[in-house]
Every structure is written in structure tokens, then in C-alpha cells.
Amino acid sequence: MLRGIRKASSNWLGKLVMGLVMGVLIISFAVWGIADIFKGFGQSTLATIGRTEISTEQFRQLYTDKLQQIGRQFGRPLTQEQARAFGFDRQILQQTIAEAALDEEARRMGLAMSDAEVMRMVYNDPNFKGISGQFDPSRFQAVLRQFGYSEQRYLAEQRKVSLRRQIAGTISAGLEPPTLLIDALTRFQNEQRSIDYIKLEAAQAGTIDPPSPETLAAYFEDRKTQFRAPEYRKISFTVITPDEIGKWSEVSDEEARKVFDQRKDKLGTPEKREVSQMIFPNMADAEAARAKITSGTSFEDLAKERDLKPSDYELGMVAKSAILEPAAADAAFSLASGEVSQPVQGRFGVTIVKVGKIEPGSAATYEGLAAEIKKQLGAENARLKVSELQSKMEDERSGGASVAEAAKKLGLTAVTIEAVDRSGRTPDGQLVTSVPRGLDVVSQAFNSDVGADNDPISFNGGYVWYDVTGITPARERTLDEVRSQVEAKWREDQISSRLRTKAAEMVQKLDQGATLAEQASAVGAKVETAKDFKREDSPAGVPSGAVTAAFRTAKDGYGQTSVAGGSEWIVFRVTEITVPKVDMASDEVKKLKETLDRGLSDEQVAQFVTKIERTIGTSINQAAFAQATGAASSNN
User: Fold this and answer.
1) Distance of alpha carbon 608 from alpha carbon 123, whole angstroms
2) 504: pLDDT strictly greater than 60
3) How far, in Å, CA of 466 to CA of 453, rounded?
4) Please, which residues bridge with residue 472 across strands?
5) Taken in order 470, 474, 478, 482, is the CA torsion positive or negative?
6) Percentages of the chain per state (helix, strand, coil), in multiples of 5
7) Is 274 helix (H, G, I), strand (E, B) or coil?
8) pTM reported for the whole predicted model
9) How far apart are CA 542 and CA 157, in angstroms?
10) Is the Cα dihedral 238, 242, 243, 248 positive or negative?
């Protein structure tokens, strides 16, 4: 993962794009929302932004959640050391402070949002829509539970997020990247080159005699650290997850049918109605509006008078359970098609409801839902079993049992890795295969010690317990232990040195008038061609290093570069350079413009947020920050 980020930042265009990406990471979270704004000030304050305080514990939880999200995006866990190495700790702190600063500014400006607008946002959020494409209250509640929100907390947070968007949108409105910049970047991205090249390999290095004992000993002595044996650890661990438990548990038809009978009224296709609703701040306004409808004004014309778009008041074809306001739901499902309700008092205001088309519901059958019920019941049983086993495992561990002993007593399987280094390799150099994908138990073990009582690792909805049962310290190996490896490395270095010299000599002759064909014939190689490749392309047979070197060389110029760690060299001539015309209407240019637009907007918002922070005052408790991000413990 880290290698991938470094690679993406290796050239100036990559640095620009990664800079924009990281800018989005820092700034957009402040605009779009990453967590609830903190309440309930703790005694240990990590940061103060104006009147807002962030406690150490609150930031620690936020920081942990964010690292888990980043880890899921990259397909592997992110350790605290890796997070600090790439500055994620600082970025997450900055985005949290920026978020609080924008909320402070919204309060200062007196910005607010109506209940009706908040409800419209919730109804239109694609995250809460079911299979039918309409708002699904069950999905809404499930998502809130998953992220630890109550309904009231979520709605309050959405108000803040929307106000941040309004501020950010106003600050960045009208910004556009210069046409000259778009033109230059597009030309840079799309420039194409063609080369003729010779590949020098081990055969062109000539015969290399084995080293004498004295030569090999001297070579090894100068490079002992390269052949040093790393520290190895012996690890035992056991995994308890719903997936693991599901492998050996089944749901019978009897269990599934019992659940179906209990829930069949909710499992069928419910009646759906085409519902429109308008929300008023008080009963008087609602009654006045209803009087207009009685006098002949249509529901739609009344909405236009209130400057409402159809998307503001049309809920579409929905089931009763999909209407978040219970009073409005009762009214909508008591009307005939085409009727408009009287004003209804609800939690978010006074509502008038109109009903259009009505689709009758249908009853569910066990046969049609048996597979899905068994799947859900199995997952539910597995989660309960995980909780039960977690308690039992903790009891065993509290009683002094090792992970292996506790697992055996509970009928679980404990995995033992006899020796593994920090990179996850065994002494024979092979990656361990007994660790489930995505489980970072090895790095956790290297942050622990023999006999330590380790906290379980959260993993795939369950837990992993582990023990470090042995440590083999790092040490210097003797020449006899690694003689074959040393000889192989010595030979590689000899080949690389000879090929480097030969490539330099060939380029010198080419500059003096020789041809590639002549040079290829002289060393028993052949001339190959790669045509019309871009900077980010990977032409067949052409290493990435040669592509980079070709773009540093003028037309008809010669160059050389090493590949495969120096075991091969490429000697080439740039035969053609093509810079296509820029089509401003192309999809490629439009995407580039969108990326630049986001970068400029984020930079503008960042400057505005910085100004707010300076105005209202921002302070950070560095000791508390180090404690929350794990830096304090790593420095001890």
C-alpha cells in the first residue's frame, strides 16, 4: 500500500494529482462531514477551536475509525506507525479542526436549516434507498446503527454538514483552472514517444569466473548487514468471526419457517402509494394553505407559490413504513387516490399530504424467501455465537490460559506460526499462508512481547486473540550459512558492472556515428522497437525505467538505463516524438478539469478555514495528541 502511494507520487504530474487527492482528504472531510461535532468536554482536552473543545478520548475514537476506513480502501490494515509515516495523524487532526472551525463560522453567521430541508436530504440520500429506489426506513435505521448514530444525532449532524457545504460552495464559487494549465497538463499526459532499443542481458556480460575464497570473504565482510538474519517471532492465534462460525453452523427449515411465520406480515410486498407532502412551520400556515386547496388551487400550484421543486415534495411510490413522519404516514394511507389530507401535526412541523396512484400489496411465501431467511438467520446466529465465544475466551484468558489452551478448551482452532519476521516471511523466505487475508496479526505481534496480555484484534465482525510465545533475536550470519546467497549477489554485481560499462561504451560509439544495428550485431543482441507510448504506459517488453529515460531524451538522441536491479541494461534511440492536439471537449480533458476544479476549490476553502482558525483561536495539546495517535507509546 505504501509503495503504491510512493509510486503515484514519483513524477511531477503524480505529485500534482496526489497533492490534489490529499487536499481533498484534508479539506473535503471538513465540508462533507466525518464525525459528530464533539460535545461533553472531557477533563483531558486535545484541541480547542473557538468555543469548541475536543477531548483526547473523542479524537482517539475518531482517529481509530478513520484508519480502519483507510485500511479497508487499500485492502489491508494500516498500523499507527504507517499512519504517522504518511502524516495521516496530522491530516485527520487538521480536518477535524477545520470541521469545527466551519461550524463555529456557521454559528457566527447565524446560518440555519429548516426541518423540511433536512428531511428532503434524508429522503434523497442514495445510501438510504432500497431496491425499489425509494427511501427505505429499515435501511436508514440499519445504517445509523452501524455507525453508532441515533436518529436525532444524525439529523442534527446533517444540518451541520449542509451548512459547511453552503459555506464552502460560496467560497469556491466561480473558480476555474486557467486554460493554459489544462493545455499544458493535457499535452504532458498525452505526449507519445517511439524508440528503437537493445536489451543487454547476462549473456552480453561475458563469462564470469567464480570468485576466489579471499574475494568472496572480502565481499561478504563489506556487506554483512545485507545478509543479517532478522528477528523472528513464534505466534499463536485464534480467529472468531461470523464467517468462521458460519462454516460449521446450519439453519434448519423448522427454524426458518418459525421466523417466517413471525414476520410474514412484514415480508410480503406492502401496499405502495404515490405520496406528496408539504411541511409548514406552524398550524396557521398549514390551514391557510389547505383552505387554498379547498378553494381550487392545486397541490402543485401551491408548491410553486412556496418556491418548491417537485423533488422537494414528491416522495414517489412508497410503502407506509418508508414515510419517516408517523402522523404523515397515517394520513397518507387513510386517503383515497387523488385526495389531500387536512393539516397533520408531526415531529418536524405541520404536514399536508396528497395521494396519487395506489398499488395493492401481496403476501409472501415461505418457499420464495426460505434461502434469504436462512442466510439472515445464520448471520444473526453467528453474531450471537461470536459474542458468546468472546465472553468465554476473555474468561479463559483472565484465568491465565494461553490463547492455544483457551482455544482448545472452547473447541476452536489455534494457528501456530513457528517463526515469522516483520515482513511476514518464514526463515526460508516464503510468505506465511496461515494468516487470513487482511489480518495484520504479525505487526501486532512485533509490537508485543512474550507473556504480554494482548487485547484482541477486531477483524471481519469478530475478534482475533494472539500470543507471542517465542522470540529469536536478529543476528549476523556467518559466510558458511549464506555462501550460496553471497556468491549469487557477487555474480549479480559483476554482471551489472560489466553491462553498465558496455552500455556506456555503446552510447559513446552511437554518438560518434555508429548505428544501433551495428552495436546489436557486435554483442549478439537484436534491435527492438516500441512505438507511440505515453509516460504512464507500460509497452510490452519495455521496463518502466526505459520509458522514463526515453522521456528525458531529445528526438534522435541516445540513452541508457538499468532495469531489474542492474541485471539488465537498455540502450535506446528516440525515433519519434508526437504531441497530439488538445481537444477541450474530450472526456479526458473534462475529467482533468474536474480534478483541477476540486483542487482549486479545496485550496480556496483551506485558506478560508485557516483564516477562521486564526480569528477564533486554535490550540492543540501536543502531548494529548501524541497519546491519542500512539506516538507517545512508541517514543517510550
Assistant:
1) 31
2) yes
3) 9
4) 232
5) positive
6) 55, 15, 30
7) strand
8) 0.55
9) 53
10) positive
